[in-house]
Fold this protein.
Amino acid sequence: MKVPVFPSVLFVVLFFSATACKNQSAEERFSESKMESEVVDTSNTTSVNATNLEREFVRTADAQFEVEDVRAATKAIEDATKKFGGFVTLSNLQTQVLQSDEVPVSADSLLLTKRYKIENVITLRVPNVQLDTVLRTIEKQVKFVDFQTLKCDDVSLQLLATDLERRRNAVAAKRISKAIDQKGTKLSGIVDAENEADLRRAQVDQALMNKLSLRENVAFSTVTLKVYQRERMQREVVLNEANIDSFQASFGDKLFEGFKSGWNLLGEIITFLFSTRQKT
């Protein structure tokens, strides 16, 4: 049995935890053009002091909660995300029919009763500096909290490692290319050296991509939400198309309907003749 939880509990823990590991703005974190243009000698990398590193965090938030109406809540969450500079990467809304019953109510009609629930899994990317604001805005949609978590991963050393790897490979590729240009060698040796230089340059590019990916994850936090509403019931009268032939009128019914139609027609004729005779 679930114990009721006030909606405000959903993001209280998230807010204070997020404040504890808040990062700089996305613009400041993602400005790498000057750094990427520099190639330094690997001899300088040995003097790096890890205690002087500026801490950088990748933050992710996960929550599952009940809302009054999934469709309305989804629109509110998407609007809030867009308002504060984020974007939606996934919105997977589904309706699951739990039970469906059909009861005949007439010769050609059925009463269709469905029990169903609606849920949606939403993934958001939110600027780090707006994460707390977005979470507080989403909190307004909450009726009942199942769980909520906030995770902060320190990626300072990963960023440093990718940067050092990129610089080492860049220096190695430059030295190989310089050696080929200055000394020259046999064709086979040149081919091998060029291949080695290409490999080093590819490693430089891969290290740069890894670093930019980390930077992007630092700049934009990922929020995964699962929202659902209570089970609901729908009833409607539908045509019984499957068994429509079995409800065709019998011969006796058709004969009775024909006799009734003929009798009504005969009565109309007699009434017409009687009224015409009185006028003459």
Q: What stands out?
A: Strands lie at 57-66, 87-106, 109-127, 144-154, 220-228, 232-239. The first strand starts at residue 57 and ends at 66. The first helix runs from residue 9 to 20. The chain has eight helices and six strands.
